[in-house]
Design a protein that fits this description.
With 267 residues, the protein is mainly α. It is built from 9 helices and no strands.
Length: 267
C-alpha cells in the first residue's frame, strides 16, 4: 500500500477561527439591527397593521435598518458556519458576495463623480418627496430634523420647499397652526435656551425679511455640497478601511477554501 504525503494537508486553525471571529461580529450586529427594526415597527403599530408600510409616501428609515440587518446577518451566518463546518459552498458564497459589494462600491463612487448633476437632481427629488411625507412617519420626521439641525439647513434647496408639505403649506384652504412655517429643526438655536422650542418655526415664512435672524436659509443639498470637500480625507479614509476589511474577509475565505480542498484531495 502506498501513501501520498501532501504538504500542509490540514485546515489551518488560525485562519479558521480568525474567519469565525471576523464574522461573529457581523452576525450579532445583523441580529441586533433586525431586532431594532422590528421593535421600531412594533412601537409604530406596523406589526399589527402591515398595510401601514404601503401607505407611507416617503422613506421609512426602518426599512434601511431591516435590509442592512438582514444582509449583515446572512453574510455573518455564512461566514461563521462556513468556517466552523468547513463548508466550501458557504465560504464561496461569502467571498463572492463581499467581492460583489466591493465592485458595486467602486462603481457607485465612479458614477457619482461622473454624473454629479444627475446624482444631485436625484438627491434633491428624494429629499422633496420626504418633505411631503414629513408628518407621515415619526422615524422619517426625526431623521429629517436631525439632518437639518446637524447641517444647519432648511429644506432641500430653500425653506420654501416646506410649502410642499400639507401642514406647512401657505395654502389658504387649510387652518393648520403650522401654516406658512417650518419645522423647529430649521430654527437657529439660542444658546441660552436649554429646552427646545418646537413652535419657533410658526408663521416664519410670512416674514421673509426676518428669515436670516430666525431660521437657516441654506438648503440641505447645498449644505451637503459644502460638507463633502471639507471632509474628503475622512471619507477617503473610511472607504479605504472598509475596503481593507472586505479584502481581509475575502482573503480568509479563499485561504480556508484552499486548505479544505487540499484536505479533501489527501483522502
Amino acid at each position: 500500500m502506498y501513501y501520498y504525503r501532501y504538504e500542509n494537508a490540514e485546515v489551518s486553525c488560525c485562519y479558521k477561527y480568525l474567519m469565525f471571529s471576523y464574522n461573529i461580529i457581523f452576525w450579532l450586529a445583523g441580529a441586533a439591527f433586525i431586532a431594532a427594526g422590528f421593535w421600531a415597527w412594533s412601537e409604530k403599530g406596523v406589526l399589527l397593521d402591515l398595510t401601514q408600510v404601503t401607505r407611507l409616501h416617503g422613506f421609512d428609515p426602518v426599512w434601511l435598518v431591516l435590509v442592512v440587518g438582514g444582509f449583515t446577518f446572512t453574510l455573518g451566518f455564512a461566514g461563521c458556519v462556513g468556517a466552523l463546518r468547513e463548508n466550501i459552498c458557504l465560504l464561496k458564497f461569502f467571498s463572492g458576495v463581499i467581492g460583489l459589494i466591493f465592485f458595486l462600491e467602486l462603481t457607485a463612487a465612479v458614477l457619482a463623480v461622473v454624473f454629479q448633476s444627475q446624482v444631485r437632481a436625484w438627491i434633491n427629488e428624494f429629499f422633496l418627496q420626504n418633505i411631503k411625507a414629513y408628518r407621515d412617519d415619526i422615524d422619517l420626521q426625526n431623521l429629517i430634523d436631525s439632518l437639518q439641525t446637524m447641517n444647519e439647513c432648511c429644506g432641500a434647496e430653500k425653506p420654501d420647499d416646506w410649502n410642499l408639505n400639507v401642514y406647512f403649506s401657505c395654502n389658504d384652504t387649510h387652518r393648520s397652526r403650522e401654516r406658512c412655517g417650518v419645522p423647529f429643526s430649521c430654527c437657529i438655536a439660542d444658546p441660552a435656551e436649554t429646552v427646545v422650542n418646537t413652535q419657533c418655526g410658526y408663521d416664519v415664512r410670512n416674514k421673509p425679511p426676518e428669515w436670516d435672524s430666525h431660521i437657516y436659509t441654506k438648503g440641505c443639498i447645498v449644505a451637503l455640497e459644502d460638507w463633502l470637500p471639507k471632509n474628503l480625507y475622512t471619507i477617503a479614509i473610511v472607504f479605504v478601511v472598509i475596503s481593507l476589511l472586505q479584502m481581509v474577509g475575502i482573503y480568509l475565505a479563499r485561504t480556508l477554501i484552499s486548505d479544505i480542498e487540499k484536505v479533501k484531495l489527501s483522502y
